[in-house]
Amino acid sequence: MNNLLEIKNLHAGIEGKEILHGVDLTIRRGEIHAVMGPNGAGKSTLSAVLTGKPQYAVTDGSIVFDGRDLLALAPEERATAGIFMSFQYPVEIPGVSITNFMKTAVAAHRQAAGLPALSGGEFLKLMREKMALVGMKPEFAKREVNVGFSGGEKKRGEIFQMAMLDPTLAILDETDSGLDVDALKIVAEGVNALHTPEKSAIIITHYQKLLDYVVPDVVHVLKAGRIVATGGREIIDAIERSGFDQF
């Protein structure tokens, strides 16, 4: 089956307020999709629903991921099934080192997949490889998760987490927010290095800058809870020229 994600007539909201009003979206294996739109369009709601944030309620529609009913899965089951989300505002976890955090996460994913646990040496080798991939210094492994990190370091750390967990579908929710050009390039290089014909990504953004470095196969405009335009690079160029009001 070539379709990795199929969203049909998705209606969803929070605290009784509907935000998504019938979203249809299909992502094939290996495709990178960009979802662009103004503030309040429903972009973050879409990512929250896909990852199973409990505050959000789906009132109609369906989501099939890798042949499974995604809405029937708990958030942790979605993660071990192969969905990863990079947050706009990564949270700090005081008292937990990056090494211990990743050791727990990798062990849970391997257990869910029926794979044997990594030895200590195998895990450290994997960490070194993935840290090098995203330009993260080895000493970062000893630091507490996101504590005292700059905005760019937090985003780089999340791409490192993505590299370690090797998801089938990566959702980057405004991951370019607040990044300078150098950090943006490192994030993009990490995303590109992890991309394969079997793995897909959704890049949620206001701006085109990240899409200069991670080139999407398909671009969608989400506005007022609906996808109002779908196309290629021409959509990005049109947004740059005239903004979202034209859609």
List keywords for this structure.
247 residues; alpha/beta; 6-stranded mixed sheet; 4-stranded antiparallel sheet; 36% helix
Tally of individual helices = 8
Head-to-tail CA distance between termini: 33 Å
Helix content: 25-40%
Query: How are the strands of the largest sheet arranged?
Result: 6-9-10-3-11-12
Poorly predicted runs of 5 or more residues: none
Structural shape: globular
Strand proportion: 25-35%
Number of strands: 12
Element pattern in H and E: EEEHEEHEEHHEHEHEHEEH
Question: Main sheet?
Answer: 6 strands, mixed
Q: Please tell me the overall pLDDT.
A: 91
> Which structural class should the secondary elements be placed in?
alpha/beta
* Rg, Å, rounded: 18 Å
Structure overview:
The protein is an alpha/beta fold and 247 residues long. The chain contains eight helices and twelve strands. The strands form three sheets. The chain has a six-stranded mixed sheet, sandwiched between helices. The protein has a four-stranded antiparallel sheet with strand order 2-1-4-5. Strands 7-8 form a two-stranded antiparallel sheet.
Secondary-structure map:
Blueprint (H helix, E strand, L loop, with lengths): L2 E12 L2 E12 L3 E5 L6 H9 L4 E10 L2 E2 L5 H7 L1 E4 L6 E5 H15 L7 H14 L10 E2 L5 H15 L3 E5 L7 H14 L5 E6 L3 H5 L4 E6 L2 E6 L1 H10 L5
Parallel strand pairs: 3-10, 3-11, 6-9, 9-10
Antiparallel strand pairs: 1-2, 1-4, 4-5, 7-8, 11-12
Helix pairs in contact: 5-6
